[in-house]
Amino acid sequence: MSEWIKNLKVGDEVIVDTGPLGWSPSYVARVVRLTKTLIVVAKASAKKGEGEAKFKRTGSSGGGFSSSDLVEPTEAAKNEITRLQYASHLGNFNGWKKLPLDVLQQIYKLKQDGIG
Fold it and tell me: Which of 38, 66, 105, 113 sits at a 20 to 30 Å CA gap from 91?
């Protein structure tokens, strides 16, 4: 088990990695509860008690086809999630996903301002 997982506390940020076959994109979440056997996380935007996901203390959601894992929330990983979120907000054109975060933020702002 990774050292950072051992040291998790309620309120800490984690990344939920849905993997290459994930039905939804990876996201940043917060630890909402810890037990002897489970780590319970929720998206930051979720209301209390909603949108929770449970993971083993190893950081794995289990096995199977659509398993997810907890990943250490490095700045690079959080920036990648943000970049992909901006790309998805701009539309289904796959070319958006190739652009760097700062360019996507500028395009998104222009779109929000009604330009383009």
Answer: 66
Q: How far apart are alpha carbons 78 and 87 in whole angstroms?
A: 14
Segment (H or E) for 3: helix 3-6
Q: Tally Cβ neighbours within 10 Å of residue 93.
A: 8
Phi and psi at 42, nearest 5°, equal -145, 150
For the entire predicted model, the pTM comes to 0.73
Per-residue pLDDT of 83-94, as tens digits, reads 888 887 777 666
Supply the DSSP string of 76-91, one letter for each residue: HHHHHHHHHHHHHHH-
Residue 52, exposed/middle/buried by CB under 10 A (0-12, 13-18, 19+)? Answer: middle
Write the CA distances from 84 to 47, 52, 101, integer angstroms. Answer: 23, 22, 8
Distance (Å, whole) CA 35 – CA 72: 19
| Residue pLDDT, tens place only, 30-83 | 999 999 999 999 886 666 666 788 999 988 887 666 678 999 999 999 988 888
